[in-house]
Amino acid sequence: MRKFGLFVLAMILAVVVFAQPAYNKAVIGFYNVENLFDTIDDPNKNDEHFLPDGDYRWGSARYNAKLEALSKVISEMAALDGGLVVLGVSEIENEQVLQDLVATERLKPYHLSVCHHESPDRRGVDVAFLYDASRFKILSTRAFPTIVPNNPDFITRDQWLMTGILDATDTLDIVVNHWPSKSGGEQRSLPGRLAAGQLGRHIADSVLNSRPNAKFIYMGDLNDNPTSKCIMQEMGTKTKPEKLTSTDLYNPMWKLFRDGIGSYAYRDSWEMLDNIIISGGLVNAAPGTYKFRSAHIFRKDYMFTKTGSYMDYPYRTFAGGNYQGGYSDHLPVYIVLTK
Asked: With helix as H, strand as E and coil as C, how does 211-230 read?
């Protein structure tokens, strides 16, 4: 009877083990979705243009078309080999627009959840995460405001840290953010991005000093190229994956940018404003755990303008104030993790 009981127990354990999906690859990305506003007036948001009677005539038809366009891109990212586990997003008005997005027919099969943070941004746009709750379990979240010395009136998006467990094995610390733009000129706006870079390094150090081999991911529209002072000096990013310490930060987007590839087109040149920066602990991860494998820009032919002055630029929703009915003025970026 004892042997029979052990046999039954072994069979039950085998069923439980084999019933769990065995993952060895994961996709983590970022997408600036270009002004995803709803059609409802919010007195606390600068959404006047994005109303049915606003300058952009932002009614239900255009809003739903925007959701369908974004859902096409994100559903194809979700179908990438390894599956889209976490997607950071920026330029969204509130949590509801993301709930509407994940409820679209294309995204319903992926059962994406929303982790949103309301930022004190003057434009009224936030950052957030979409994530596959069947594979990623949130442990904690925390917002970090960007403060510019000697400028108490400065306001921008918070940097939003989400810590969780991937596939019940690996702890990931992921920050999504949207740095201040270059509005008003690069030099005039530089203090905001310098402060954002300093804050990013502070967040990284707070995580890596407490857990030196932490798998830290910092992503977003940084409104700067990988070669900028704000990224390379203030955040201290490295450009090569060799000889990284566990507390070093590596920017794999630097190589793509060096090779002439970008995520945003401006004045007939490509820029890499959308960056994913990772810790040495993710590059040199222990065997049997997730580690960084590669970095990419998600590009499909339909995501580009075919005619006119913006030909070969990302096919955006608005260009020069005119409705285009496209996707976004940015291309998504992503990294692949493998065991």
From this structure: CCCCEEEEEEECCCCCCCHH
Which tokens is 301 given? 């032919």
Identify each DSSP E strand in the chain by its residue range: 25-36, 84-92, 112-117, 126-132, 136-144, 159-166, 170-178, 215-221, 237-238, 249-250, 264-266, 269-271, 274-279, 291-297, 318-319, 322-323, 333-338
Q: Can you give the pLDDT at residue 210?
A: 94
Domains of the chain with CATH codes: 25-338 (3.60.10.10)
Tokens of 36: 């995803």
**Alpha helix positions (H), 31-145:** 60-78, 95-102
pTM passes above 0.85:
yes
> For 108, which DSSP code?
G
Tokens of 337: 């993790």
Q: If DSSP codes are grouped into helix, strand and coil, which group holds residue 303?
A: helix
Quick one: average pLDDT of 136-155? Answer: 95
> Quick check: 70 and 62 in contact, CB under 8 A?
no
Cβ–Cβ under 8 Å, residues 301 and 290: no
Classify 209 as helix, strand or coil.
Answer: helix
Q: How far is CA 231 from CA 73, 193, 194, 236, in A?
A: 28, 9, 8, 7
Among 320, 318, 299, CA closest to 37? 318
pLDDT tens digits, residue range 291-323? 999 999 999 999 999 999 999 999 999 998 899
Contact 28, 290 (CB under 8 A): no
Strands 237-238 and 264-266, sheet pairing: unpaired
Distance of alpha carbon 145 from alpha carbon 165, whole angstroms: 25
pLDDT over 60 (residue 20): no
User: Using CA atoms, how far apart are residues 208 and 205, in angstroms rounded to an integer?
Assistant: 5
- Judge contact between 221 and 249, C-beta under 8 A: no
